[in-house]
Automatic annotation (TrEMBL):
Claim: Kinase is one of the keywords in the record: no
Compartment list: Nucleus, Nuclear pore complex
UniProt entry tagged with the keyword Transport: yes
Protein name as it appears in the record: Nucleoporin nup82
Biased amino acid composition, Basic and acidic residues: 664-675
A GO term for molecular function: structural constituent of nuclear pore
Lineage: Eukaryota, Fungi, Dikarya, Basidiomycota, Agaricomycotina
Cellular component terms per the entry's GO annotation: nuclear pore
Annotated InterPro entries: Nucleoporin_Nup88 (IPR019321), NUP88/NUP82 (IPR037700)
Keyword set, alphabetical order: mRNA transport, Nuclear pore complex, Nucleus, Protein transport, Translocation, Transport
Main location: nucleus
Organism of origin: Bondarzewia mesenterica
Length: 841
């Protein structure tokens, strides 16, 4: 059976795993509780610890994909279903319930640990961890799978006075993948090691300083509430040990260094970090600037920190070597806590959207350009900040954060770190809602980033009104090209003038113009499994799933600019034939550059060009109501479709013209090929015979000329010196005499040097085995004698030394005679065994 033509949206349509939970018994419970409208807006903006409403407010991620299994949280339930069974067994659609009696709260977030064995669950105020069953076990049980679930930090997260949970995330370098990070709105980041203790955090990091008693701070409330956090990235710097946090006011702070209490870090990274710190310290020593001298304490602490990490390596670890994970703990060599760096200066200041009064920041993500290009720009960092009004600030991490501590010599007046604001993206939410007088709905909007698991330069942003895809590849490539240029300032300025921007593509919209409500997107998941197609799953609050099959990039090198090619890739191929100067003999009609497919026909990512409308099927009215808003929406939609149809027609004409041009060029090349075949046949026929005859005549004439030249040369020699001189005759006689001495008068002449050398060689080969045997015997005897008497007497040592000196002198005399004889005969001999055994003598 063939199911390739079916997408996941059709396969998962009406799947029971997306049905509503049967738990709520409230008579007021209906589908409108899950919608964002003017009536339900207070439930999205107000948070009650005693009553967790059904409104999908705040950060939501209620769907994850583990291998080929889909895990969905519905209310307080966890459901799992095999995607392979749903695709190939289309007749039966079912799911299994993960029985977790300890979870008695509405599930807002799901996070799968790196090993895929633990699932972190977060509600508005509580956190739990579920131990997932092994792969394939869910097929063995009928409807319910008993799973072990553990409450995490009940003292901190289960009380009525607990701070709301902002985000949960597993640390990628946690030992055994059991390090869970929980951020609350009060700025406390608590680190739990599930394999050690689930109640008490291993570390607590604060991004909001404690208010001092008897002090007054006029800060805004949003400046002391955390919106989200993210981990930095890097290869040979402090990026992976940096934690970034975004406040609701838009301020960004960083704490470095931060690592789990029980960490498993690649050894290559720590060695690279050691080289980075050593280079910084060496530069500081050579510099005479007073600004750099003030950093000596910080670099000393960094060196102590990295040295303490290296001391935790197992014995025998060398560098360079194959990288492997090493279990380490945060060093205690620096007694001061890490410094909270910030707020970051955003330069230039981000612009506000037209028609918007601004909004709270909702999420932050750190994206690194990890293309396999050698050089300093291979880890170009980009920080993305999202806001409620649909604004996304794209900031370049031009000044990398380094480890700093709150030591006494640190001054609060030091310069704050900086992020270069490259652009501010407008998702178009303000413009679409302003015409409907629904700007207040933005208060319930909470955009969330979701990184692509395969391509680092692609980020998905889902919110209360749909999903947008952000493609940073062109932007990152242009910046990398500029930074790798010879003239740094000019190349960078040219790159900035080229206005390469982030490609923003809306893929799903959930806003109903007719009903003036929206179903927020509550989950986005991308499978990273070889048995599943590369696709994206989008789940709305109405439990409708939308999926798109994405395209894998076939050849990365073709999409890279030529300036990014390294020297190893630039292989110069010399042409077989040198080109004739002047205009080319044949000019193609197609030109030098290859044909580029029109953008309307090329969908490199596989996402739709027009966002798909995802509305709940049950809420679709039977009769269509025509209102000014619906007319305006239909007009805009028709306008977009008309523009797209017009672009398709233009692209079709362009492709047809190109096709006709290629056909014409093909006919020209056929004619030219026929002419070349005729020319080749002429060259192989009569013209070749004529050429062969001419070559034979030339060879005969050359032979005659060579004979004449030889006769002329002999005549000139005879005229110049008719007889040999006395010196020449004496030299030839001496050569004959030397030849007789070396070779001899005959074959059996024993007095010749050649015969004597052969005799000497035979004697040498005959004596050497006896000498070697005697030497081994003597060494064995000396070893036994040494073992019996480790110390000899003075007289014994004197006699042995005297005997050894005599033998050594005899051997050296024999070696000297052999060497003199060999030098006279110009024969090379190998080094004697004694010299080979002891080259220093």
């Amino acid at each position: 059976m063939q199911y390739d033509e079916d997408d996941w949206s059709t396969i998962l349509n009406n799947h029971p795993i997306f049905s509503r939970s049967s738990g709520p018994t409230d008579p007021l419970f209906d589908e409108t509780s899950f919608e964002l409208s003017t009536n339900t807006l207070p439930k999205f903006t107000q948070l009650d610890p005693e009553d967790d409403s059904l409104a999908p407010s705040g950060r939501r991620q209620t769907m994850v994909i583990k291998d080929a299994e889909l895990i969905v949280a519905v209310g307080k339930e966890l459901r799992v279903s095999a995607l392979g069974d749903a695709k190939f067994n289309k007749g039966s659609k079912s799911y299994k319930l993960l029985h977790t009696p300890n979870i008695q709260f509405e599930i807002h977030q799901l996070a799968l640990n790196p090993s895929g064995q633990l699932l972190a669950i977060a509600g508005a105020f509580q956190v739990a961890v579920v131990v997932l069953p092994r792969p394939g076990f869910t097929r063995l049980v009928p409807t319910k799978v008993d799973c072990k679930s553990i409450q995490v930090g009940q003292y901190y997260h289960a009380s009525t006075s607990a701070a709301p949970i902002v985000k949960i995330e597993w640390h990628p370098w946690g030992d055994a993948g059991s390090t869970l990070m929980v951020m609350t709105v009060d700025g406390k980041l608590r680190e739990y090691d599930i394999s050690v203790d689930t109640e008490e955090p291993q570390q607590i990091i604060s991004f909001v300083p404690e208010k001092k008693s008897r002090s007054f701070m006029a800060n805004d409330v949003s400046e002391r509430e955390v919106a989200s956090f993210t981990l930095g990235r890097g290869k040979a710097d402090w990026g992976p040990l940096t934690m970034y946090a975004a406040m609701k006011s838009g301020d960004v702070y960083a704490i470095c260094p931060y690592m789990p209490q029980n960490a498993s870090i690649p050894s290559s990274y720590i060695h690279s970090l050691e080289c980075f710190v050593a280079a910084k310290k060496e530069y500081l020593i050579q510099s005479t600037s007073p600004d750099t001298r003030s950093l000596s304490t910080t670099y000393d602490y960094q060196h102590k920190y990295v040295s303490a990490l290296l001391k935790q390596f197992p014995p025998g670890t060398v560098f360079p070597a194959s990288s492997r994970s090493v279990s380490v703990h945060p060093p205690n060599t620096v007694r001061y806590p890490p410094l909270r760096q910030g707020p970051f200066l955003l330069q230039p200041s981000p612009r506000n959207l037209d028609g918007s009064e601004g909004g709270d920041a909702t999420d932050i993500i750190y994206v690194a350009f990890s293309h396999e290009v050698e050089g300093e720009t291979e880890r170009l960092g980009v920080v993305l900040l999202s806001y409620q009004d649909g604004k996304v600030d794209v900031c370049l991490d031009v000044e990398k954060v380094e480890a700093q501590w709150e030591h006494k010599q640190h001054s609060n007046a030091d310069l704050s770190p900086m992020l270069a604001v490259y652009e501010s993206i407008d998702l178009g939410l303000v413009s679409s809602l302003s015409g409907l007088q629904l700007l207040d709905l933005l208060q319930g909007n909470h955009p969330v980033f979701h990184a692509d698991p395969i391509y680092d330069d692609t980020v998905y942003l889902y919110h209360a009104f749909g999903v947008h895809a952000l493609h940073l590849d062109k932007l990152l490539y242009s910046l990398a090209t500029a930074l790798r240029g010879e003239g740094l300032d000019s190349s960078l300025a040219a790159s900035l003038d080229s206005q390469e921007q982030t490609e923003v593509q809306p893929i799903v919209t959930t806003f109903s113009v007719e009903r003036r409500v929206s179903n927020p997107v509550i989950a986005v998941a991308l499978p990273n499994d070889v048995y599943l197609t590369y696709s994206i799953f989008i789940l709305t609050s109405s439990m409708r799933v939308v999926s798109f099959t994405l395209n894998l990039r076939s050849d990365v090198l073709q999409s890279r600019p030529a300036d990014l090619l390294t020297d190893k890739e630039e292989i110069a191929v010399e042409p077989l034939l040198k080109q004739i100067e002047g205009p080319p003999i044949y000019v193609s009609l197609l030109g030098d550059k290859p044909f580029e497919t029109p953008a309307i026909f090329s969908r490199p990512s596989g996402l739709p060009s027009i966002p798909r409308l995802a509305l709940p099927g049950s809420q679709t009215p039977k009769e269509f109501r025509l209102t000014p808003d619906t007319l305006r929406y239909l007009g805009q939609t028709v306008e977009r479709f008309t523009a797209q149809i017009h672009d398709v027609q233009l692209a079709y004409r362009e492709v047809r013209a190109r096709s006709a041009l290629q056909e014409q060029e093909y006919r020209r090349q056929q004619e030219k090929s026929g002419d070349m075949e005729d020319l080749i046949s002429q060259l192989e026929g009569p013209r070749r015979d004529k050429t062969d005859e001419r070559l034979e005549k030339v060879q005969a004439a050359q032979s005659v000329l060579m004979s004449r030249l030889s006769k002329t040369l002999h005549a000139l020699i005879k005229e110049a010196s008719p007889e040999l001189s006395e010196h020449e005759m004496g030299w030839f006689d001496e050569l004959k005499r030397m030849k007789g001495e070396v070779i001899g008068a005959g074959r059996y002449d024993e007095s010749s040097l050649l015969a004597r050398v052969r005799l000497l060689e035979r004697e040498f080969n005959r004596l050497m085995p006896h000498l070697n045997a005697r030497r081994e015997k003597e060494s064995k005897r000396m070893r036994i004698l040494y073992e019996q008497n480790q110390r000899l007497g003075v007289s014994q040592a004197f006699e042995l030394g005297k005997q050894f000196s005599q033998e050594e002198s005899r051997i050296r005399n024999m070696q000297r005679e052999l060497s003199n004889l060999a030098s006279k005969l110009e024969v090379s001999l190998g080094r004697p065994p004694s010299l080979l055994a002891n080259p220093s003598k």
